[in-house]
Amino acid sequence: MTETDELPSVELLGARVHGPTMPQAIALIELWISRREGRCRSVIVTGFHGLWVGHEDSRFRQLLNEADLFCPDGIAPILLSRLHGQPLPQRVPGADLMDGFFRRAETTGFSSYFYGDTEETLSALSARLSERFPGLKVAGMLSPRFGTLSAEEELVHVNAINASGADVLWVGLGLPKQEQWISRNRRRLNVPVAIGVGAAFGFHAGTVKRAPQWIGASGLEWAWRLGAEPRKLWRRDLIDGPRFIAAAVADVWRQRKSLKPGTRLRHW
């Protein structure tokens, strides 16, 4: 039995999504850091985008299922879990997970390493973190060059992360690249926990404006981000989004039909 076995979970398009509350997710990260087991734990933080990529790519779906923790970032997994009769308690967005961990880390002394995004974003991120979390320990920051890295370059980066002695590695390369990077390197990473957080570097740096809290709570953050970055997100939200909904609803229907007669679902 693992620590996540006690969490609610649901299978969506073949991927297991966990349902921690925000405090539970942070507590799990702290537990893994304190244990120092000699292996790197992998945390996935994504919503419909990651589930859709996994639906279309079985190798990526396997990667999702191999993660130690899959946090639902976005309203889609929450709504679908309710349709399945296995409701997950809440969204766990990457930026909020970082925020909650940083607040705890000011007390615990846990350090963070930031890998990804641009030099400009990392510079702004460093300045903002120093202002908002003056007690936070930053073990290092590294912006890889654009494009595919050679095996030698990647090893140099892994060695730099290991040498930093960081407790948590935050990876902001965008999905699916960040999840693939963590999966490919986790056996040679010494850091206890690696977490892919997508655009969260930009949110914390102030280079990407995040939706107001009430919009996120209402499940409309995707619409806000589409309006803010239409060139980047129009295909994902306007083409892949409807296809995802159709596939996910069909998946719910198939799973409901396969239930044994008399099986009761949990309702919301």
Topology, please?
Layout: E1 9-12, E2 15-18, H1 22-35, E3 41-46, H2 48-56, H3 58-66, E4 69-72, H4 75-83, H5 94-108, E5 111-116, H6 119-132, E6 137-142, H7 151-164, E7 168-172, H8 177-185, E8 193-196, H9 200-205, H10 213-217, H11 221-228, H12 230-257
Parallel strand pairs: 3-4, 3-8, 5-6, 5-7, 7-8
Antiparallel strand pairs: 1-2
Helix pairs in contact: 1-5, 2-3, 2-12, 11-12
Spatial shape: globular
Major beta sheet summary:
6 strands, parallel
| Gyration radius over CA | 18 Å
Helical content class = 40-55%
Write down the CATH topology.
Answer: Rossmann fold
Instruction: Name the poorly predicted regions.
Output: none
Question: Can you count the beta strands?
Answer: 8
CATH level-four homologous superfamily name: AF0625-like
Oligomeric status of the shown chains?
single chain
Which tags fit this structure?
two-stranded antiparallel sheet; 12 helices; 268 residues; alpha/beta; Rossmann fold
